């Protein structure tokens, strides 16, 4: 049976069987002010309301909007997210429902393939289940995004072709990740730009720039089209190339041939040692008579660590742009990129992604890994965004993983294998998609499931909610812990902290960490106040003092000092009597 609290100390408050502090998470998400072990100000903007009546159960000063039990008399509403407190002991009035539900005063599950729906109707979808696309408030198969719509795989919705002016038919280009118009009706023609963008233009006036040529009155084509000169950038006609695309050498007006690897321009086609300028992300080096392009961060060529784009046109190499996972330092155009803020070079797909999966190494150093991939076709596998072919049998979609296969475990949005780092820093062994043995600094919550996080950091106070509204969490600042016992009812149970970070020690109950400078203290109750000393020391006024032998308490030292004075005084008296009195005799 899991231990629950019935009363908390003055510095904490009681909530659903646990003691929490208002100054740290998760307590600060529940209550903003407490007194005498009870919450006095509930955080009502976070899905709770203040009990208007005298609580019928300990710790029910604040009640969750979705808690249908409450204190027995005052309660929430099933599946409610935010609510208004009742005037007396009764049910709250729901204002908004949880995601996946529709309504206000009562909450109805969204129907069909809806993941979320409008407040007014459970049948009007706003997002869809995996594999379905949103089209006019309904969830449909990808094949139904046809003719006047295209399937946007990024937003998982059917987008109208009319977003491109005059376009009547379109598709979605997976390479450019843009809509591609395929038909502009009778009066206009499709025009494709170098970056893949398509527009509808008047063939007589809209196809006169240097990147295009007219194919009679039927089409406006890029210079590099198969009817023009492949790999040509600018031209004066269908077979008259004036400039080739970056990376290609103009042999003649009808031929563009690839330069060597990484060259933007070159003096000889197909030769990597005849570069004149480099593609973005590379810089030119000269070795004897050869000129080649090497990556900006090439260590063997004196590149700049973590650099994505660079320039050495003025004699010295300068970094102009750091990789997405590196923090730029220094002046613009001359950056250093030494501070790594994510282990994924793409920063999990840039601003659309998230690198919030924190893993600690054996020394307690933090490393950040992908928790969400900005590209919907990539997923967090072993901390970095991997393509669909590298999912290794894990269940992932829309940039995140939801279940893991044998040998892997789910951790903060991604699947990690326990057999090697970084996963092995969290979990020593994994069974059927769940962690079965946690690494030092982590714990496995009771009855873990493959669709939930099965390994938690001892220092994670937010935790994870498993089945039946049972949640398990770590302790803020904790470095070593033991897992909590299985909860028998809904609520939250925290791990028992056995060791804390540098300069801090756990309290005797293992529910918190406090600053503790006394090397002889085993457990500190609050900052600077010891509640249990190490062997050989005793507690006096919140401090640890020695108890005997080489380690004596202040009382023992005082007693021994007095005894020593008595003994020495007696000895001096005896010697005086001996020499003086005996001398007279």
Automatic annotation (TrEMBL):
Coiled coil: none
Every EGF-like domain range: 61-108, 109-140, 222-257, 258-294, 295-338, 515-545
Transmembrane segments: 556-580
CDD domains given in the database record: FU (cd00064)
Top-level taxon in the UniProt lineage: Eukaryota
UniProt keyword list: Membrane, Transmembrane, Transmembrane helix
Cited InterPro entries: EGF, Furin_repeat, Giardia_VSA, Giardia_VSP, Growth_fac_rcpt_cys_sf
SUPFAM superfamilies associated with the record: Growth factor receptor domain
Protein name: VSP
Organism: Giardia intestinalis (strain P15)
């Amino acid at each position: 049976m899991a231990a629950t609290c019935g009363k908390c100390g003055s510095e904490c408050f009681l909530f659903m069987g646990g003691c929490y502090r208002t100054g740290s998470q998760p307590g600060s998400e529940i209550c903003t002010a407490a007194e005498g072990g009870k919450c006095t100000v509930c955080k009502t903007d976070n899905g709770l309301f203040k009990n208007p009546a005298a609580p019928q159960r300990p710790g029910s000063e604040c009640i969750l909007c979705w808690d249908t039990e409450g204190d027995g008399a005052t309660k929430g509403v099933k599946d409610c997210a935010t609510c208004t407190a009742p005037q007396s002991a009764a049910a709250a009035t729901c204002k908004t429902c949880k995601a996946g539900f529709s309504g206000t005063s009562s909450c109805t599950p969204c129907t069909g393939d809806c993941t979320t729906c409008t407040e007014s109707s459970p049948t009007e979808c706003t997002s869809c289940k995996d594999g379905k696309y949103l089209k006019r408030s309904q969830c449909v198969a990808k094949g139904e995004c046809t003719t006047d719509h295209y399937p946007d795989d990024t937003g998982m919705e059917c987008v109208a072709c009319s977003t491109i002016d005059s376009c009547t038919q379109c598709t979605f280009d997976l390479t450019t990740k843009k809509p591609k118009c395929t038909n502009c009706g009778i009066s206009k023609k499709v025009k494709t730009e170098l970056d893949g963008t398509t527009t509808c233009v008047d063939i007589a006036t809209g196809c006169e720039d240097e990147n295009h040529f007219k194919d009679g009155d039927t089409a406006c084509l890029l210079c590099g089209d198969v009817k023009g000169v492949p790999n040509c950038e600018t031209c004066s006609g269908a077979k008259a190339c004036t400039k080739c695309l970056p990376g290609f050498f103009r042999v003649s007006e009808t031929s563009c041939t690839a330069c060597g690897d990484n060259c933007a321009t070159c003096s000889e086609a197909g030769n990597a040692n005849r570069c004149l300028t480099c593609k973005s992300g590379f810089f030119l080096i000269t070795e004897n008579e050869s000129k080649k392009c090497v990556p900006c961060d090439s260590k063997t060529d004196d590149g700049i660590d973590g650099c994505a784009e660079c320039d050495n046109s003025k004699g010295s190499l300068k970094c102009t742009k750091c990789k997405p996972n590196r923090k730029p330092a220094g002046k613009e155009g001359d950056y250093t990129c030494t501070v790594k803020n994510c282990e994924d070079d793409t920063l999990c797909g840039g601003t659309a992604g998230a690198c919030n999966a924190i893993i600690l190494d054996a020394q307690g150093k933090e490393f950040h890994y992908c928790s969400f991939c900005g590209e919907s076709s990539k997923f967090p596998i072993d901390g970095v965004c991997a393509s669909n072919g590298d999912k290794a049998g894990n269940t992932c979609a829309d940039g995140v993983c939801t279940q893991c296969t044998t040998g892997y475990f789910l951790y903060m949005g991604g699947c990690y294998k326990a057999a090697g780092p970084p996963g092995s820093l969290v979990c020593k062994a994994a069974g059927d998609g769940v962690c079965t043995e946690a690494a030092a600094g982590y714990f496995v919550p009771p009855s873990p499931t493959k669709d939930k996080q099965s390994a938690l950091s001892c220092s994670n106070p937010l935790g994870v909610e498993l089945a039946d509204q049972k949640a398990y969490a770590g302790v803020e600042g904790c470095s070593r812990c033991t897992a909590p016992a299985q909860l028998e009812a809904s609520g939250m149970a925290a791990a028992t902290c056995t060791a804390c970070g540098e300069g801090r020690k756990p309290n005797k109950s293992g529910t918190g960490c406090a600053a503790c400078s006394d090397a002889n203290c085993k457990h500190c109750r609050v900052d600077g106040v010891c509640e249990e000393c190490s062997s050989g020391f005793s507690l006096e006024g919140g401090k640890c003092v020695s108890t005997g032998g080489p380690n004596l308490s202040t009382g023992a030292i005082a007693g021994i000092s007095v005894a020593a004075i008595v003994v020495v005084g007696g000895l001096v008296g005896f010697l005086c009597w001996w020499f003086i009195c005996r001398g007279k005799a």
